[in-house]
Specification:
Largest sheet: 4 strands, mixed
Shape: globular
Number of strands: 4
Helix content: 40-55%
Radius of gyration: 17 Å
CATH topology of the largest domain: Glutathione S-transferase Yfyf (Class Pi), Chain A, domain 2
CATH class of the largest domain: Mainly Alpha
Structural class: alpha+beta
Protein name: Putative GST-like protein YibF
Number of domains: 2
Organism: Achromobacter pulmonis
Strand order of the largest sheet: 2-1-3-4
InterPro entries: Glutathione-S-Trfase_C_sf, Glutathione_S-Trfase_N, Thioredoxin-like_sf
Pfam families: GST_C_2, GST_N_2
CATH architecture of the largest domain: Up-down Bundle
Number of helices: 8
Distance between the termini: 24 Å
Order of helices and strands: EHEHEEHHHHHH
Length: about 210
Amino acid sequence: MLKLLYAPTSPYVRKVMACAHLAGVADRIEWLDSAAHPVRRDDRIAAHNPLAKVPTLILADGTALYDSRVICEYLADLGAAPGLFPPAGTRRWQALTWQALGDGLLDAALLARYEHTVRPAQWQWPDWREAQLAKVAACLAAIDRLAPALARDLPTIGEVTLGCALGYLDFRFPELDWRAGHPDAARWEAAFATLPAMRATLPHEP
């Protein structure tokens, strides 16, 4: 049995679990409680991952895998789902670049959220938060341009990551109303969100 240190609100955990569902191995993963936090280290995670971050996957022999990029590729290989990570060639580099775009959007969104929810009020820097949200806006514009080329079923890791990134904005940044200015991305996300792997992994408060 595989063991996953997780947080139910983490978009990176969602990305891993969506891949697990697509690869047909979700029922082989035991969820381990943890309290990942950017400041307060959780020793339960740190015992397996020096970064003390989720997701962290523990294999049957005790080996730990991290971060989401590594875990997703492992699960795709374990479940014989090669379509998630196309073989070497144009489609692979495209999928990995789309994954980087989605991860980059998430990195910026999380930093913007932490500025308000983790950093003490007297040390918050509004310009920093706005700079992170500017990155989010640029990523949204890029996703809107890419949307006609994105798969709505049989996705690669690129589409999975982009879907999780847009879902995270719905979850944590509803005030951005990202759909209003990105109609093509909105249409793609509405269709992609109906995949069983995406419906089964919606984020929620613990």
